[in-house]
Specification:
Shape of chain B: globular
Strand content of chain A: 25-35%
Low-confidence stretches of chain B: none
Oligomer: heterodimer
CATH class of the largest domain in chain A: Mainly Beta
CATH architecture of the largest domain in chain A: 3-layer Sandwich
Mean pLDDT of chain A: 87
Helix content of chain A: 25-40%
Distance between the termini of chain B: 61 Å
Number of helices of chain B: 12
CATH topology of the largest domain in chain A: Rieske Iron-sulfur Protein
Radius of gyration of chain B: 24 Å
CATH superfamily of the domain at 60-235 in chain B: Cytochrome Bc1 Complex, Chain C
Structural class of chain B: mainly alpha
Helix content of chain B: 55-70%
Distance between the termini of chain A: 104 Å
Radius of gyration of chain A: 31 Å
Order of helices and strands of chain A: HEEEEEEEEEE
Order of helices and strands of chain B: HHHHHHHHHHHH
Strand content of chain B: under 5%
CATH superfamily of the largest domain in chain A: Rieske [2Fe-2S] iron-sulphur domain
Shape of chain A: elongated
Number of helices of chain A: 1
Number of strands of chain B: 0
Largest interface: A-B, 12 and 15 residues
CATH topology of the domain at 60-235 in chain B: Cytochrome Bc1 Complex, Chain C
Strand order of the largest sheet of chain A: 1-10-9-4-3-2
Low-confidence stretches of chain A: 1-5
Mean pLDDT of chain B: 92
CATH architecture of the domain at 60-235 in chain B: Up-down Bundle
Chain lengths: 163, 259
Amino acid sequence: MADEKKTVGTETVSDLNRRQFFAKLGLGSIGIAAAGTTVFAYQFLSPNVLYEPSPIINAGKPESFPMDSVTLDVNSGIYIIHSKEGFFSLSAVCTHLGCLTAWKPDLGIIACPCHGSKFKQDGDKIEGPAPKPLPWKRMWISEDGDLMVDRSTDIRSMQFVRV
Amino acid sequence: MAKTVDQYFDELRSTRVWRSVFRSGTGSSTLHRALAIQQNVFLHLFSTKVRKRMLSISATWYLGTLTLGTFLILVATGVLLMLYYHPSVPQAYADTKDLQFVVSSGLFLRNLHRWSAHAMVFLVFAHMFKVFYRGAYRPPREFNWVIGIVLLLITLLLSYTGYLLPWDQLAYWAITVGSNIASAVPVVGSKIHFLLLGGNAVNANALLRFYVLHCMILPVAAVFFIAIHFWRIRKDGGLYSHQSEPATLRARAARQEAR
């Protein structure tokens, strides 16, 4: 009789363990499912194909940009600048909050209409709130002799393209 | 003997159909009135009894109720605007103009939606200040204050996502600037920006995402939290009234004992 009671006792303990086991199994499964859902949601929400314009721009023949000119391409958001040292391309997107800046020929500066940031012709910051200068974009001459700009690639400043 | 309106109403309330819909019975005792509130799926969120003093304008200025009113106007007008608005780049701006100049009552509905949106933001803040300066955020109501903050954020997000939908220059640059603020989050900022817009710039994907957020996800979230907000008023002992607070009552009892 005493042995039986003991068995009952251990059974009660093992019952509790089984409950704990299933609780842990359940929580674990929910945890794994939640982690999977997070990964799934992140992947689903990140588009794999973007129907955005190509980052590579054909700006046309170098001859169309006169010496000491700053030309804004509104659609691609870049400046093509022809200076004494050569050609270069600047991002026209303000480094503050992404507004499109404008070249002010009478002042010789690039200015942002949104919050008043000002930049020099080579992209250097004159005054904020922009935290950084306008980045230089990779520029090269294509086989056909056209000026090409890769908007997705920033380069160090003062790397001019000479024709 | 001509029957009074009340008698006709009592007769209506004793019909089988009425009784099958409303379970609280035919009487008009305090119990029946309380049951009418408690057994109604919409009203059961609220207290069955309210202190008469709390229904006066000075108690709340009705700011919470007015906020709910603007929200209901926004849902009603918003659903109607959805019938003429396509969230696509070639059509969005033209549809907005059509709503103003071509659709019957379109101008009225769009303006009502816009002014209600402004009013709702104003009322939410006014409600928050009123609650704050009355001290109604204090325990046991501190969790409902947190729910209120969530509702404030949802209101602002609803305003922000709705701002893009006319797809004009103002909308485009406002969302460009606003979404770039999200990029300022450390480490994951640019990822959040990319997920929010569904691309690298404000474009067709961003318009569609903001539309879904504005018309589906955020309103559903708002309804969910509004329900909790109202239910918590009842659970936390009704609207805050300084004279009836336990601490005030204890202090008064202590004063009387000292006398």
